[in-house]
Amino acid sequence: MQPSDFTKRKSGILVKHERGYWAFVPNPLPPNIELTWDLAGEISAADRGLSELAGITRTLPNPHLLIRPFMSREAVLSSRIEGTQASLSDLFYFEAVRTTTDRPGSDVGEVRNYVRALEHGLKSLSKLPVSLRLMKEIHAELMRGVRGEHLTPGEFRRTQNWIGPPGCTLNEAKFVPPPPENMMESLSDLEKYLHTRSALPLVVRLALIHYQFETIHPFLDGNGRIGRLLLILLLCAENILPQPMLYLSAYFERHREKYYQLLLSTSQDGRWSQWISFFLRGVAEQSRDAIKRSERLLALWHLYRKRVQAVRSSALPLVLVDALFSRPYLTFSAARHVLGVTFRSAQLNVRKLIAEGILEELPGRSYGKIFVAREVLNVLEAPEIK
Predict the structure, then answer these.
(1) Same domain membership, residue 13 and residue 75
(2) CATH of the domain at 375
(3) How far is CA 1 from CA 174, 197, 247, in A?
(4) Cβ atoms 250, 285 nearer than 8 A
(5) Does residue 306 sit within a domain?
(6) Per-residue model confidence as pLDDT tens digits over 337-368
(7) Domain extent for 341
(8) What whole-number distance in Å separates Cα of residue 45 and Cα of residue 283?
(9) pTM
(10) What's the structural domain count of the chain?
(11) Helix (H) or strand (E) run with residue 197 in it
(12) Could you give the CA distance from residue 104 to residue 118 in angstroms, rounded to a whole number?
């Protein structure tokens, strides 16, 4: 990293380490932000999107049906930004067919850990604020038993890290976060900002916090995923959303190059307005997406329940219908576990859903048959809902 890459407007200070490399230490939040009519309009659109999503979420007959699939989708997309190749189908497939001796591939394992980390964070909000302690706890969940688990899970780094092409040195790096001796002060300032009242709209504060965390880069691995996890935790902690239904990873993944470029240019040239505008557009877009995706899934849920109730069967197929929205892949053993019935009864209830066109059998397996709710999976995997 070269000092010449940074202008006088940079959003922090450059420090030269005794080992000879340069690193960047961000200024404490908040920065001076120039409020323009364009920015005011984007703040309004983002707030409106969140309000509409919160309103719809409160009226859902069963919002818990959608929490798990939305979490899983976010886990796949956030991990994909970091280079994993696992798809949503891969994750759901593994969850359906695993046994006690199964070990997922590294990519699926990382995605599963993301879901676990998010669940842990949301559960912890009842007794912990979003804090450095909570960041370390969710990092431990994220890194447990997967690639990078040797890189001090649940602990802030004690050595220097850097960002750049594979194999590059510190001097060749595109960006070098604060050295360890500066990092803890930056983290302490960030935690104080998290707990300080502010006149800024929450959507703007989220943009600032996300930038600050990514710039500090306090872990040896997993910083991008933790930084994106913090967004939904803050939305829920501030009671902006009654349920964790908004995720920005799809937007960041769709605009990956711009995402990274704007984070860097904010450091180098203090371009806060451009970064904040980009972030706000993401909140507005993903709020609309979450609303449309929720409506599509709930329409399927109502349709499936109507089909099952029309044949006057027991309530058991309805229980399976609900389960399919959390995990669209199903086996007879999984159905038996969900319903708490005999294997034979589980088979009969699965076949009722096949007869109603809700499930289809995957070909090529004479033993350990696997079934999929294809329409549910298609809604969840669609890049965009129109």
Answers:
(1) yes
(2) 1.10.10.10
(3) 5, 35, 32
(4) no
(5) no
(6) 999 999 999 999 999 999 999 999 998 776 77
(7) 311-381
(8) 9
(9) 0.93
(10) 2
(11) none
(12) 19
